Amino acid sequence: MTRRERVAYVQGVSAQAAPATPITATGTEARNLDGQAIAITVFSTIRPWGNVIAPIPGRIFLPILFVVTRRIPKLTVTLRQLSFIHFARWTVITRLPHNGAPQAKKRFRYPHMYFESNFNGGWEEYIDAFSHILTKGMTAFWGSSYGFPKPLPTAQFKQYINANETEAAHYYSAYPDATSSMVQRSLKLDDTLTPLKRNAEKMDPDEFAKAYRTFLTDVQDCL
Amino acid sequence: MPRAGLGNQTGQAYAFMAMTPVKPGEEAALEAYLHGLRGDGGPSPLAKLSRTHMARFVIVADFYNDKSWKQRKEEHLDLRYLIFTSNLDGDIETYLDELCEKLAPEAQEIWGRCVGCPANPKGQVLKHYLKHNQINTGIFFAAYQDATVPRVKHCLHQRERMIEFAVASQGLEPAALQQAFLHEFGGEA
């Protein structure tokens, strides 16, 4: 390994080593946390008519947005750039399944949007990143909801999310100490390490040492 | 019943959501039970479901109504509702089979406090109840949609081992480096 490669490698290790304890999850209630993982759960009420922010009523626009986004995965590229999200979902609810009395059997007056996210980091930073990076996306998703103040400036948007958020009663992560980027780096590392593991025994020592150095250079950003 | 092919799935990952009405008078007991699920810091019972990446229980008291938002008429939930969502691996049918068996001890305390839940909630009757109350997802985003829970755990552990190995093996001669590598990772591919 050249000096340059070693420096880059050690820097990578130092910067990305797994935290031993949950240290980055901040800004929300304790029951929304499991280690590094944070739960956010938000309901918003969708207006029946369009307005300046969202001219097409959400009842019509959101199902179309959902279908188009599912069919054109490129539209989620920006979402993928927010490397602190594990899983997120949006759902429009117009009625609930009926289970008998005393539950009322009725269709909602307004559609309601359910949003949840599983992410790591800080609640405030999460909303900031959403607002600044996914400005158009946030407007598309929440523009048809009552009270939506536009993503920017973020202070008002945070107030809006805060007002509509419900705390989890119980939250679980199967790998609570891992951030989303750690998971993605680990998976990428595995893809590169597997061929080296497969071929290591067949190589002579010099050949292996060369392959190993190339491997380390390739996976610097995964460690 | 939910229709197949909606937004519940991306890659091999599946987004399940069930929203069930809580029986009047049972709200506080349900909330207390869910809050205490970890006991004294022990594992969540959801850890028994090995295909679960992340999951939550949420009790929704009502929709938020704000007069300044100019909503023509307020809308309220008739009862409190329990939401259970899970981000899981693979097929929902077999996942619910597993859930209804392994979470049977907790199910009575959780969904047993919900309207319409059958007595002795476990097995197929619980599965039917959860599917009846399933809400389809519009868009489901999964950052690593093709990675299962076991693979994620394996890769996280392997990454830690790789970091330790890379640091410990610095300066080794080629033959020693290869031997050390084979000792650590040989036979795994």
Question: Compute the gyration radius of chain A: what is it?
Answer: 23 Å
Distance between the termini of chain A: 16 Å
Mean pLDDT of chain B: 94
Please give the most extensive interface between any two protein chains, plus how many residues each contributes. A-B, 92 and 88 residues
Oligomer: heterodimer
Radius of gyration of chain B: 22 Å
Give the % helix of chain B: 25-40%
Quick summary:
The complex is a heterodimer of chains A (about 220) and B (about 190). In chain A, about 45% of the residues lie in helices and about 20% in strands. Chain A has helices at about 5-15, 60-70, 75-80, 125-135, 135-140, 155-165, 180-200, 205-220; strands spanning about 35, 35-45, 85-95, 105-120, 170-175.
List the helices and strands and how they pair.
The complex is a heterodimer of chains A (223) and B (189).
Chain A: H1 3-16, E1 33-34, E2 37-45, H2 58-71, H3 77-81, E3 85-95, E4 107-120, H4 123-133, H5 135-142, H6 154-164, E5 168-173, H7 180-199, H8 205-218
Antiparallel strand pairs in A: 1-2, 2-4, 3-4
Chain B: E1 9-10, E2 13-21, H1 27-35, E3 52-60, E4 81-89, H2 92-102, H3 104-110, H4 123-132, E5 139-142, H5 149-168, H6 174-185
Antiparallel strand pairs in B: 1-2, 2-4, 3-4
Helix pairs in contact in B: 2-4
